[in-house]
Amino acid sequence: MARRVITAWIWLIALVFVFPFYWMLVLATHSNDDIYKFPPPLLPGGNLSENWDRLLEVVALPQAVFNSVLVALAHTALVLLLSSLVGFGFARFRDAPGAKWMWRFVLATIFVPGLVGLIPWYVLIARLGWIDTLWPLIIPGAANGFAVFWMRQIILQTVPPDLYDAARIDGAGDWRTYWTVVLPLIRPGLGALGIWTFMATWTAFQIPLIVLNSQSNFTLPLAIASLNTLYGQDTAAVMLGSVISVLPIFIAFVLAGKQFMAGLTAGALKG
Amino acid sequence: MTAATATTTTPAARAVKTRRFRQHRTFYLMVSPFFVLFGIFGLLPIIAAIWIGLTDWDGLNPAKFVGLANYATILTDPLFAKAVGNTIFIWIGSTVITCGLAFVLAYLINEYVLVGGGTLRMVFLLPMLAAPAVIAIIMSVLFSTNAGLMNAALSVLTGDRVTFDWLASTGWIKPIVIVMITWRFLGFHLLLFVAGLQSVPRELYDAARVDGANGRQVFWRVTVPLMLPIIFFSATSSTVGAFQLFDEPFVLTNGSGGTDQAAEVMGTMLFRTAFTEFEFGTASALSWIMFALIAVFTIVNSRLLRVRT
Questions:
Q1: B65 three-state secondary structure
Q2: What is the pTM assigned to this prediction?
Q3: Is residue A130 exposed (0-12), middle (13-18) or buried (19+ Cβ within 10 Å)?
Q4: pLDDT higher for A14 or A47?
Q5: What would the mean pLDDT of A221-243 be, rounded to a whole number?
Q6: Which residues in A lie closer than 8 A to residue B284 (C-beta atoms)?
């Protein structure tokens, strides 16, 4: 009995918790006049297509979606490739001279807050001619200590050392072993890390804000923020823009929720 | 004698060492991308920040060495004191509420929930997928004067039409930032705690019961001590996040820091010093002060949580 009551309560809390997203959807389908009426609307209205037309006039949303997808995919691919390779190196050659110290260094990088070098980082990006391009969102963050740590753990757990000997007997070198033996075996780990990286890139705000200047290069979070600053009065259009920015990732999450959750908890529990 | 042995063994030892290095060439090649990239974009900027923090530099004109003047400027700036105060307020508020609520919810979900535990966890994670700008927009509409549900609810409750301007109020902006952080990150902490609770062996609970412990004793003597590493991780990541806090207060106040800078935190102060006022030297010094504070609070965190075990 008590269990049933508690279950009901927790579901109620969960509904209150996601209600703001539902409400965002509701406001996106109303006219601005409806929104400012009292009491405010709580059910979807019929103004969606007008809001959509107005939204497309004021902000290059398709361009922002494209930029976001491009950045998130490219950065994720780079992180997966680099961290799995480096993680494999550390998992496979633990007795190489200096490997222990290099590994400690990798672990130490996890605890250094990214903000510390922000200003010189910005100067460096400027010197490289990367201001107002998407490069600084793709390349620099690819050296991710946590991702390397996570890949090494996965490789140590899932690839039995005997397999390396078998591969060598079959004539495969270390690089080939990485590519044809290790990568296919760690696919679930790559998936979890990939979703986690994709999501972090998708919602990133501060670095894009610092390096991007022109509308046509904005990622979604920036486009939404600028939409809010410029057209804050047009609540319906701003809400619709917000709906569009969360929709792709919500769908991806529903499709791959399990891997996503595995990726999030792995760092804390497998350390 | 020792000198003689040293001279005779060193070349041999060196030869062995060189051979071992050569044998592991693949290793160094494989791990080099990380060290090259991190060296350029991580380590180099951090080291450069020490130097820039000792200069007066706007990013364009030649830098002028000023010693520790930037540190003195920051530490005597009343706005810095305010930003630190706001950061600590938001840090404690968001850490206690987020970690506490996540732990209670995780415990209840793990012990009592009959259906849909997995779906529940996904529901609580949804806000984490949304960009902070989106969450801030939803929050600002929820708390807006005319169209806000908050004022609408208060109007219904009091019978009067309430048109309070939450976001312009100096007293409410910090709690709203805390609500926003809690909303965004609760699911992450919840997930950690649920996973942690599920890894506690059931036999331990059974053994405690056999020894005559009641529900509350089992919770405090078995569950909490076993969960301490996860509580520590949760509190630490919340602390590191809070001291680097930027997105939430920035988008919620449209970059203004709020009425009377009531929502200015160290992260937004760093941003403004660097990219609005172009005081790169002061901003670099500020970033090192933030680093020191994060280190100190992480150590304090670990001490506090370890003392209890």
A1: strand
A2: 0.86
A3: middle
A4: A14
A5: 83
A6: 119-120
**Within chain A, where are the H helices?**
2-28, 32-35, 48-58, 61-92, 99-110, 118-127, 135-138, 145-158, 162-169, 174-176, 183-185, 187-203, 206-211, 220-231, 235-269
Which of A217, A215, A191, A196 shows the shortest CA–CA distance to A58? A215
Closest residue in A to B196 (Cα) is A269
Residue B290 has pLDDT above 80, yes or no: yes
Residues of B with Cβ-Cβ distance to A27 under 8 angstroms:
141, 147
Separation of alpha carbons A76 and A203, rounded Å: 13
Query: What is the C-alpha separation between B109 and B113, in angstroms, rounded?
Result: 5
Nearest to A225 among B26, B251, B275 (CB): B251
Whether residues A120 and B48 touch (CB distance < 8 A) is answered with yes
pLDDT digits (tens, 9 = 90+) for B18-59: 777 777 889 999 999 999 999 999 999 999 999 999 999 988
In angstroms, what separates the C-alpha of B112 from chain A's closest C-alpha?
Answer: 5
| Residue B195 burial (CB count, 10 A) | 20
Chain A residues with CB under 8 Å of B292 CB are: none
Q: What is the ipTM of this complex?
A: 0.87
Least confident stretch, A32-46, A256-270, B162-176: A256-270
* Residues of chain A with C-beta less than 8 angstroms from the C-beta of B244: 113-115
